[in-house]
Amino acid sequence: MVKELLNRGIKKHYVILLSIALSLIVYFMDILTRARFGFSIFYIPSILIATWYAGRWYGLGASLAATLLWFIADLASGLPYLHPLVPYWNAGIRMGFYTMIVLLLSALKSEYEQRERLIKELRTAMENLRVLRGLLPICAWCKKIRDDSGYWKQLEQYVEEHSEAAFTHGICPECMARVEKEES
């Protein structure tokens, strides 16, 4: 769905808005359950969307936003911790996890785009490549080639029609010697 929108010219800003909306939905679920259920994994789709369709920096921004939203929801729950730094530690761990996802996904996308470029170049090369294949019936005496319609054509004409090759003519040293010998 998002890819189709981007193909139609939808701006990255709309992808970011979608990412933010998804994060806010998860945030409100976090608030409603008062940290009794772990929703931190559900922030990942918004991070994935932002990274894949908008880029690494947007993905990192979405990671930071998801971490902050989770942190605020965690503090708002009012649940006690054994140490006051535990929520900060948890937020740092989540931010690190989200950042690894962004970096891995952006590397994966880069490889994917390079692969797509190579496939496109290969297809272009294959379209421009014309190769003669199979058995060609050729006259043993005059070297004419029979085409698929049964007509006999000069070797040069047949090759030029079925490939990108073009011929120029000259005389090899052996034939030149034979012609000179016959003329003398």
In terms of topology, how is this protein built?
Layout: H1 2-7, H2 12-33, H3 44-54, H4 56-77, H5 86-128, E1 145-146, E2 152-153, H6 155-162, H7 173-183
Antiparallel strand pairs: 1-2
Task: Provide structural commentary.
This protein is mostly helical. It folds into two domains: 2-128, no CATH class; 145-183, no CATH class. 67% of the residues lie in helices and 2% in strands. It has seven helices and two strands; from the N terminus they run H-H-H-H-H-E-E-H-H. A two-stranded antiparallel sheet has the order 1-2. Strand 1 and strand 2 form a beta hairpin. The longest helix is centred in the middle third of the chain and has 43 residues, at 86-128. The mean pLDDT is 85.
Feature tags:
2 strands, 184 residues, mainly alpha, rod-shaped, two-stranded antiparallel sheet, 2 domains
Structure at a glance:
By secondary structure, this protein is an all-alpha fold. It has seven helices and two strands, in the order H-H-H-H-H-E-E-H-H.
